[in-house]
Each structure stands twice: as C-alpha cells, then as structure tokens.
Amino acid sequence: MRSVGGFAAVFKPSRVRLGRMIDATLATAEREAGFDLALAVTNGGDEPVTLRFRTGQRADFAAYEVGDDAVGEASDDGDEMSGAGDAAVPETDPVWRHGAGRLFTQALDSETLAPGESATYEGTWRDPPPGVYLIVGTLTAEESEATATATLAIE
C-alpha cells in the first residue's frame, strides 16, 4: 500500500490484449480539492497498435464504493464483483464517473502506438467524500477492454 497525502492507494495494473499486448496502469496524485487520475497505456508488443476512438473521449474513470477490507485485497469470490480484464469491478453503479455529464467531440479519430510507446489520458475527481473506493480507468478505444484499477482510502 502506498500513501499519497490523505490517500492510501493499492495499484493493480491490468494487461489486456488488443490484437497485440496493451499494458494499462493507473496513477493518482493528490490535489487541493480532489485528485488527478492518469491512465497510461503502453504497446507491449512488437508491432504498432492503432487505437480507434468514436469520440474525443480517450479514457473514462469511475469510482466504486467498497468496504474497508477491500484495501489491499482482491475479490476472487465472484459474489460482489465481476471481471473486467484483470480488474474486478463491483456490479453496483459507480458513485462518480468522469465522463458523466460531459460532452465530447463526435468525430472518429485514431492514435498509433509504436512498440514500447505509451499514451496517458487524464481526469480529475473533485471533492471526493471520505471512504474507500475502487477507481477503474478504462481505455475507450474500439475493441479494447484495457483497464487498470487502484483502491483509494480517502480520510
């Protein structure tokens, strides 16, 4: 577990195939009135990978409320969580979603990552209430299920 100011975080990167290997990691950083989220995706393969997007949104972030015992633990029982790549996502509605209520350009676009190249997509959760949350960062590219998670305890 790593503490960032008032935040305690456990990072669980996930690795998902998108035709070739895409690694996804999620980082958080405390800010005055909340925290910044950064989803980094890296082409771990030997060939270029083209990420195709239907809108200007490149990543989405969601916060799910979880119990105190979830910090540092992953659920394998399948009762409360379902798999999303290697990330376990609660089957409840998120308490916050970065893309909710936002408008994104409605244009097709793409980005190509050379082998070993990374792209980082960011979001900010402003004024989160105290609690323990599973933060899920998801790449919004077509045919992609690349996700990464972090468990945050906010005091």
TrEMBL record:
Biased composition (Acidic residues): 70-80
Spans annotated as Disordered: 70-92
Gene3D superfamilies: Intracellular proteinase inhibitor BsuPI
Domain of life of the source: Archaea
Boundaries of every Intracellular proteinase inhibitor BsuPI domain copy: 26-76, 92-142
Signal peptide: none
Pfam families assigned: BsuPI
Name under which the protein is recorded: Intracellular proteinase inhibitor BsuPI domain-containing protein
Organism of provenance: Halorubrum aidingense JCM 13560
Lineage: Archaea, Methanobacteriati, Methanobacteriota, Stenosarchaea group, Halobacteria
